[in-house]
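$ ./design --mode recover --in tokens.txt
reading tokens...
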């Protein structure tokens, strides 16, 4: 799922004018910039190593039908 307009902007490669327009918009609209920043921090937390390791453990457990050892 794309996070365009939630954590930032998705744009075509080498679209310098499009990039410049988005940067100018964010400079002129600090509330949007702040909302993007807050959303990006939340999104970034989904990539925390403990979250990712838990997902890997769940995957391996489902593939082997084994329970992971209690820590």
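writing sequence...
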């Amino acid at each position: 799922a794309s996070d365009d307009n939630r954590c930032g902007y998705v744009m075509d490669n080498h679209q310098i004018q499009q990039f410049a327009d988005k940067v100018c918009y964010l400079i002129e609209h600090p509330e949007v910039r702040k909302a993007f920043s807050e959303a990006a921090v939340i999104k970034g937390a989904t990539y925390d190593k403990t979250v990712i390791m838990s997902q890997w453990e769940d995957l391996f457990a489902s593939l082997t039908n084994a329970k992971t050892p209690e820590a």
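exit 0
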